[in-house]
Structure to design on (490 residues):
């Protein structure tokens, strides 16, 4: 709630700004009285509680007759290196204040603090003019004419002319004020301070040219267009809107209700924030629980769908009349052996072509052999490790009637999916040359993709121990034996 401001002086009494403030609004009090006193002091290097007790003791020594007093720092400092220059500010005559503050207390409105008109004017100059040159401010107030002297943005002198004065008397008072500043060595004698008039027309100096008139900057006039006409009255609404104000002159007993109200508001705000945090935390927990329940519901729905699919698959498998593992083993054998081996007539095509191209040979026996399929890998076993452990042994899985050729130096690795053994006789009435040509034709026709000749014993022995003769009577024929191996294309 925006606070209400009351202007207090002996001549005007209690003036509210705005004219009809709210009954429960906090109250700002601005005192405008001639008894305002300022005393600059230098404090020893103290801080914390010692500095506060020292300043309270100096205030009690300098102004024992009034409770409206305060110590203001004249320079910036830190908590560990506070300011050494301080200003003791007080209103020494306070008998007129109690009758004026009683209506404020009866309204049951807490008093925020009490400040002087000099503090309001000085704060406004420091905020908007920001000049360090010596400045004499002549400001019209509801109680009269207030004269302030500022140097380095610090108020060093404040006077109130209670009665209505004419321009000549104001010029005389300015000359008297400048002489006082010269005598107190607050202003060098050769320096001409600037004079700023607010709420009245500029006044020309009388006799000597000891000061010069100054006007407000244009940007300040745009923000406060009535300050040059009304003076302090235009600054009071600005003062009520400020959040940061200098320390108040009011005693603690006067501002205790407002401090208690702020403490209660702080507790309520803290409790509200804590409640909001608890509600947010509870909402987060509820949201997380809801997300967990939704995830659980989705998992249950997925589980039901999987169970239904498993039931359908089980019903389809049961329709075959065999167990699932047996069906899987059969599928594996079919894909690895039968499907990859091709049709049976296709396997015999190379041999049939060879026999058709060699009428000298007569087939008497034919044997087809297939090795046992590799077992299925157990669940959870690495297939690569299982494959490495189940590589076919070298030439030991061949049938007994298909031995490797006797001239082989080392056994060959058997990756054959099918073995074919053929045995027969040759025509004994044919000449030797025709039988040798028949052997060549026979071997040529057996050359087909995927087939390889493991061993072949021709009917005519051609080793070194055999003596060939041109006469058929001396030619001894033997049964031919053929061993073929077939491997699927990679």
């Amino acid at each position: 709630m925006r606070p209400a401001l009351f202007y207090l002086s002996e001549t005007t009494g209690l003036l509210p700004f705005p004219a009809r403030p709210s009954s429960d609004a906090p109250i700002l009090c601005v005192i405008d009285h001639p008894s305002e006193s300022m005393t600059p002091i230098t404090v020893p290097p103290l801080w914390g509680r010692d500095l506060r007790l020292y300043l309270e003791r100096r205030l009690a020594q300098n102004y024992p007759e009034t409770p409206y007093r305060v110590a203001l720092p004249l320079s910036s400092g830190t908590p560990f290196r506070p300011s050494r220059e301080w200003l003791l500010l007080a209103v020494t005559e306070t008998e007129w204040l109690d009758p004026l503050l009683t209506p404020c207390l009866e309204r049951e409105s807490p008093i925020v603090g009490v400040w002087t008109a000099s503090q309001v004017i000085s704060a406004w100059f420091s905020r908007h003019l920001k000049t360090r040159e010596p400045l004499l401010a002549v400001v019209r107030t509801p109680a009269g004419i207030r004269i302030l002297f500022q140097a380095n943005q610090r108020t060093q002198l404040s006077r109130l002319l209670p009665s209505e004065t004419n321009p000549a008397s104001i010029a005389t008072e300015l000359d008297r004020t400048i002489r006082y500043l010269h005598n107190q060595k607050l202003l060098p004698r050769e320096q001409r301070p600037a004079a700023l008039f607010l709420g009245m027309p500029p006044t020309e100096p009388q006799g000597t040219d000891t000061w010069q008139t100054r006007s407000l900057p244009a940007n300040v006039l745009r923000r406060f267009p009535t300050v040059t006409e009304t003076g302090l009255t235009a600054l009071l609404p600005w003062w009520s809107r400020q959040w940061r104000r200098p320390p108040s002159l009011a005693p603690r007993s006067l501002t205790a209700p407002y401090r208690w109200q702020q403490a209660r508001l702080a507790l309520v705000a803290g409790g509200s924030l804590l409640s909001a945090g608890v509600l947010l935390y509870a909402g987060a927990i509820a949201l997380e629980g809801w997300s967990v329940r939704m995830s659980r519901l989705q998992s249950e729905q997925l589980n039901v769908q999987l169970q239904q699919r498993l039931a359908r698959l089980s019903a389809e498998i049961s329709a075959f009349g065999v167990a699932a593992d047996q069906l899987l083993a059969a599928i594996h054998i079919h894909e690895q052996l039968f499907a990859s081996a091709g049709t049976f007539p296709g396997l015999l095509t190379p041999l049939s072509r060879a026999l058709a191209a060699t009428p000298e040979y007569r087939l008497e026996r034919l044997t087809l052999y297939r090795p046992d399929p590799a077992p299925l890998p157990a669940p959870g076993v690495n297939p690569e490790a299982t494959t490495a452990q189940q590589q076919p042994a070298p030439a030991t899985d061949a049938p007994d009637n298909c031995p490797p050729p006797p001239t082989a130096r080392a056994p060959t690795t058997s990756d054959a999916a099918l073995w074919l053994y053929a045995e027969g006789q040759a025509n004994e009435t044919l000449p030797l040359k025709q039988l040798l040509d028949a052997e060549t034709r026979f071997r040529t026709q057996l050359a087909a993709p995927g087939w390889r000749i493991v061993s072949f014993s021709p009917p005519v022995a051609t080793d070194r121990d055999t003596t060939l003769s041109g006469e058929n009577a001396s030619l001894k024929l033997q049964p031919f034996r053929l061993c073929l191996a077939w491997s699927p294309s990679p």
In short: The chain has twelve helices and 16 strands. The radius of gyration is 60 Å.
